[in-house]
Each structure stands twice: as structure tokens, then as C-alpha cells.
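User: I'm writing a short report section on ligand binding and want a predicted complex to refer to. Could you take this sequence and adenosine-5'-diphosphate and write out the structure as C-alpha cells? A short remark afterwards would be nice.
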Amino acid sequence: MAKYVYDFTEGNRNLKDLLGGKGANLAEMTNLGLPVPPGFTITTEACRHYLSAGSVPDGLDREVAGHLAALESRMGRKLGQADDPLLVSVRSGAKFSMPGMMETVLNIGLNDESVHGLAKQAGGNDRFAWDSYRRLIQMFGKTVLGIDGDLFEDALDALKGRRPDTGLDAGELQRLVETYKGIVREQTGREFPTDPREQMRLAVMAVFDSWNAPRAILYRRQERIPADLGTAVNIMAMVFGNYGDDSGTGVAFTRDPGSGRQGIYGDYLQNAQGEDVVAGIRNTIPLEDLERIDPPSYDQLVSIMETLENHYRDLCDIEFTIERGTLWMLQTRVGKRTAAAAFRIATQLVDQGLITMDEAVTRVTGDQLAQLMFPRFDHGAEKKKIARGMNASPGAAVGKVVFSSERAVELAGRGEDVILVRRETNPDDLAGMIAARGILTSRGGKTSHAAVVARGMGKTCVCGAEELEVLTAERRFSAPGGVVVSEGDVISIDGTTGEVFLGEVPVVDSAVVEYFEGAEPDDELVKAVDRVMRHADGARRLGVRANADTPEDAARARRFGAQGIGLCRTEHMFLGERRRLVEELVLATTDEERQVALDALEPLQKADFVGIFQAMNGHPVTIRLIDPPLHEFLPDLVDLSVKAATHEATGKDRRLLAAVKRLHEQNPMLGLRGVRLGLVIPGLFAMQVRAIAQAAAEVPGARPEIMIPLVAAVQELESVREEAVQILAEEGVAALIGTMIEVPRAALTAAQIAEAAEFFSFGTNDLTQMVWGFSRDDVESAFFSRYLDLGIFGVSPFETLDREGVGRLIEIAVAEGRSARPDLHLGICGEHGGDPDSVHFCHEAGLDYVSCSPFRIPVARLEAGRAALSRTDSDTR
Ligand code: ADP
Ligand code: MG
Ligand code: MG
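Assistant: Sure. The C-alpha cells for the complex follow:
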């Protein structure tokens, strides 16, 4: 029979799929002998069953009852027992952390009777008991009963006035409980449920349901977390940080998640319960101050943090509560960190002897490296600093100020850069945070919602800029010195230093880009990047080439570590001045006229190739013969029609118009392009091949590879190849001749095609279009978001290679191609070549290299190294 419930003593950290991250790590801490309140976890499997069947699986209720009974006997109290109640929390916890996205309910088991029992348990602390009760109704009301949380907040605010919540006495809290119960009655037409078991059962289902809350769906999509995992539910005995000043609750990191530096790092709040710290209801104090308030608990916490770091061999973040001098651990996980911290921490852990260099490479990601390559503010530029907050998530962001998530989404939708400014953010701000360039808050520390979520998304964030007064309703904020910034004004925020500037500050290359450009690694971060990159390069099997069409791009690609060019497009060689020659080519009515145009183009192309061969200095250059339909180079139909109707129109205009009409295609993507052009327009490919050959003859060491696009049948390739071989022989130049594999038929007949090709390069942009039957430009904006919502794919197949469909074709082509020609050279040149997950696929599929845009080359190098070093998983998150 299926087992749906695990006691904390039964699980461990490797069971994240089943127990969720929170449950697996609570079990791990329990087994390490750390002080964790006892409890148990309902599996994600039960959640998945509930979400698909609409009811909990058979036997779950019985299993939960059994575990609850065991918990009760261990604690010596029964759930909600009137004179001496056991209280529990019901907490969500998915495989991947989704901070604040799902639900948790604390203090379950309280009602009008047990609230007195709780007070008695606490030695007559009535205030504490009523505070816990009002928290239960508030959280339960909002998350389980779906009541607007503001109704409770407003009632609380009205009662406390300018006092902090700790200023309320027992009588006032008791009155608040009555008010809250009234809100529940009014909003739901029913009484607040007083049966403890009913409370627990409803809370469990609410946690299950929260998996599909809109903000959770949005977060998963943003973070590419699969939609079908479900969440586990953790039920654990409550411990109380809201007894009084000898109690409290906090969050901490074992290292600075921003810089990676080791140390005590976190926020603490006296006389408070869990949520209060991140919600920013009162100002927290730095964790160091706990040393003064409660030295024994502090020392114990520091030593536990050390234990956790050594055990997980990584940065951990933790949640803890102190109940009257006793420390309890409530959560830990390997913590999110900034990109810079990821590189620093990885190499620090190597130096501490905790991990190997191989592991260090797998601890950082290509996405993190890409973030470090974003520009930063120019230190030399003149700028007007108006405030400073905490450097919560690095980067340089410039944009118009907005004060609400809706407005951020609206302006960003019009292509504007915006900075979302809030007092503090909450999970409902997620859409605005995604839309914004950067996030600025006036309250909350580095563990606040804004900071944690921004770091997770790699978005620039400055938080807790307390000098700012944010007036959300009036859509403005004020800064010291009489500065007032209104919606629409431009500011610049530096997530690396925490500074806020008025107006636009210019940006410059990041130090990491300067390093890739050849600068000596001088600062600690760049040195860490350098060490990781060297190790990744030493480990990887995949070569990395660049998609580069100009000598400048080629030179940059070389500096960034490209081992050749995998795709040099030749279509730009027909643009600008040269359009006139294309027009003549199209208008030619005789072979002689056509040859005149081609002869004029040849030396121009040759010069282009010379520049590229020189820049690549003996490394291979794969040149793709012209690919787009020729009408793309001709004037626009409408413009021409207008012109042809006037009396200024020349004979050529009229002939051009006729040609444009003749060449018009219903579906150009599937029309006269690629190899088809070469076969239909005599001399076109020959001209290009000759230009390549002559350029190669001029540049010592040049290694041209001639690539024929859009081949579907070996016969196409054979006839082009024959002509090319002859020209190469005439010019006395050696070059490989190969083809793109971008039409499904080519992949399916790879064995035949390999007879005529010395290399294959998978053109995965076209291949994806044709395999899915998607016209990329049309479908992406039209309905991809719907497809993502429906879970038809978790990420666009144009972004990350679709392993099941496109990937399978590639595997077929690799196997058949190599069987026909064992030394067949294989690469990929679509945009997927720079996408982390796709690079891992290419490694697994046994390709020889990936080719990507120059800026993605370091990312591809790193991911190729990670692919070679990670044993099994294709999880590049
Ligand atoms: P999230 O995933 O949003 O952080 P959690 O499940 O961790 O939600 O719970 C929210 C807060 O409640 C946290 O600060 C947590 O430490 C606290 N909390 C959860 N369970 C208990 C408990 N049994 N006793 C005391 N505090 C708890
Ligand atoms: Mg938590
Ligand atoms: Mg193509």
C-alpha cells in the first residue's frame, strides 16, 4: 500500500521529490540531532492525487490520524485539548523553494476553550494566548477561507493605532479575536471552525490548493519549475516566539548571500511569530545583537550554523525560533545566492577543503555567469545619489519609477524600463517584479520578500532604503534634502552597492566581461570566475564555436574563447550598397547579365571572408551559403507600387515591381531559399564558393568549411557539392563541405546525406519550427503564453531545445550519420547553442561542438564543463 505520511525521523534530504525541500531538510536536521519540533510530512504524491482526483487518496486520513496520535503521545498533549492544548503548524513545502508563494497556517488547535488552556500552559500569560488565537483566525481566514487579508489588517491597524502590535494587551487582543470572528462570519456566512481536527484537515487541503494559486503558477513559470510536482505538507508542533521579550524568531544565512563572505548574517525579532520577520511589520534587529540579548541561544545557533554548513557543504539559510530561552530550528535549505556569491562561495569551499574543484564547477550555472556579464554603472560618471539601502541583489538598473505591480506590468508591456518602488513587496507583487528592471523598497532587510525573490530571479534589488518615504497612493516618494520623485521620473539603482541615484546613470562593461576581453583577473570575484572557467575548460568534451558574421564579432568571439566559427552567415554581404547588385541579379534576363552582377559581387564577398579568416587566425570557419529568399533584399512591394504609379517611375522600377510580385511567396519560410536558391539561380553558389576559396588562398592557415543550408535530400547536396569541389580544385584550396540539418527529412535520411557531407550542423531554429510546425514570429506572441499556462511545454522550444521531439531527430541523425561516415563532424548552430539545458543535451547526444553568439560563449564553455562533470542529472537549475 502506498505510504503518504513520513515522520521527520523517517525522511532525509534526498527525498525532496517526495517530501518537498522543507520536509526533507526538517527530517535531515532531526536526524542530525538538532532541536527540531517533532512532526510529520504528507507527501507530494498525496498532493498530486488530490489535485488530479479532487479528493485526498484513500487511506490518507487514517495515516494522518495515526501520525497525529503518535505526535500527541510524544508531546503529552492532544491537539486543541481544552485545558492543555497541543498546537501545530501546517506548512507547504515543494521540491523547489518558492518563497512565500504558497500557504502556511500557524497555531492550529486554538478555539474559545483551548485559548484558556494555552494561557494556563504559559503560566497565566493571557496576552500570549490571545495573540496566538488572533493570528490563527487571521492566517486561517486569509489562506484557508479565502478572505481578503486587508480586512484583518485594517481591523488590527484600527485597534493598535500608532502602537506596535506588541503594545496590545490581552483584553484588546481578546476583542480583536471577536472582531476577526465577525469578519469570518460576514465574509463566509459561517462561524470560524472550532474543531481542531477540522481546522487541520481544511488547512492541509488549502496547502494542496495553493500549488495552483495564480502567483504560484506565475512564479513557477518564471523560475521554470515544472507545473506537475505538487507540494508536500508539513505538520509540526508549534513553538512560540511570541511569549514575550525572552522569545523571538529569526532568519539567517551561514554566509552573506550577496557577497559570499562567511559570518553571522540575519535578522531577529523579539516577541514575534515566524511570518513577522519577512513581512516587515516591525523593524528587525541584526542577528549579531542576539549575542547581547540571549548569549546561550546565540552560541548554540552559531554552532548549529557551522554544523549545517559542514554537513551540506554549502551556504544554508535557516529559520529559527527562541521560546523562553530554548532554541528551535524550523527550516533550513541550501540558500539562494547572488551570481557573484555563487562563484565566490564555490571557490571558498574548495579552499576550505569542503568540496573539490569538479564540484565547484557544478555549483555555479551559466545563467549566473551571464548575470555577471551584465553592465554596471560607470564609477566615473557624475551622478546624484539620493539614498542608500541594502545591496540585496546586484546589477545596474535604470528606469521610470512605478508604485504598483499593475503599473509596472502596463508600462513594461509598452517596452518601457521601470523600477518598481514599494514600501515592501509581498507575493502579490510578483508580476510587477518580473516586469521591472529593478526593485527598490524602503523597508525590510536582505531576508525580506523583495530581496529573496529578486535574488532568485537575478533581478537588481535595493531594499530597506529607510531614508525614503514611499507614498504609494500618491505615487511618489521623497528622499532627504527635499527630493521628490514621482511616477514616471527616472532613477538608477545599484544592487551591488545599494545606492539610489536620481536620473539615468551611464553603464559600462562588467569586470567579468573585461576579464573575458583579456584583462588580468584582479578582484576576488574575477579570480573565482577565472578558476572555475579554467577547470570547466579542462573538463569539457564539447568544443565551443561562435556564430559570427563580421571580423569584429569573430575577434570578440576569439577573445571569449571560441575555438572557431560554427556559423558565419553570408546574407549581410548582400545588403547596403550591394542591394543594387542583387536587384540586377534578379532582373537579369540572360546568363551574361546575371554573370555581370555576380562578378561584381565576388570581390566584395572575398574581402569579407579575408577579414574573418584573419580574425580567426587558423581556427575553422563554417560559412553558410546564402539562405534567405532573394525578395528579402528587394524594395518593399508597397513602396514600389506607389513609386511605379508616379511619372518619375523608371523602366527599372516597373521591372522591379514585376519581379517582386513574381517572387512573392505565401510562406517564405518554406519557399525558395537555402540550397533551393543555389539550384535555381545558376552561378550564385559558385560565386560564393569561389570568393571563399580565393580568400582562403590569401590568408595563411585559413580553414574554411562550406555549409549548405536547408538540404532535405542528398541529391540537392550532391549537385551543389560537385560544383564546389571543382571550384576548390581550380583554386587549389582545401575545404570541408557539409550541410545544415534543419529540415526533418534531412535528419531522417542522415545516412544518405552523410555520404555527401563531411559535417552536419544542426540548425535548431528552423528544425524546431518545422518539427512543431510553428512559424516562430507568428506563434510566440500569439499563443505561447497560453501554451505555457496549459503546461504544453514548460519553456518555449525556441529557448530550450525540445529533447523529446527535436532532440530525438538529432539523435537519429547523429547515429545514422556516424554509421555512414564515422568521422562525421557534428555541431549545433541554432540559438540553443548558448542555452544551458540545450548545451547539456548536446553533450549527451555526443556532438563535437556547440556554436552560439559571442556573448554566450563563456556560458557555453561553463555549461559544457558542467555537463561533463555532472554524473547523471540534466537539471541545470
Ligand atoms: P514559507 O515557506 O513561506 O517560509 P513556512 O512554512 O516556513 O512558510 O512558515 C512561515 C513561518 O512560520 C516561518 O517563519 C516559520 O519559521 C514559522 N513556523 C512554521 N512552523 C512553525 C512552528 N511549528 N512553530 C513556530 N513557527 C513556525
Ligand atoms: Mg519558511
Ligand atoms: Mg535555417
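A remark for your report: The longest strand covers residues 262-270. Residues 319, 331 surround magnesium ion (ligand 2) (CB under 6 Å).
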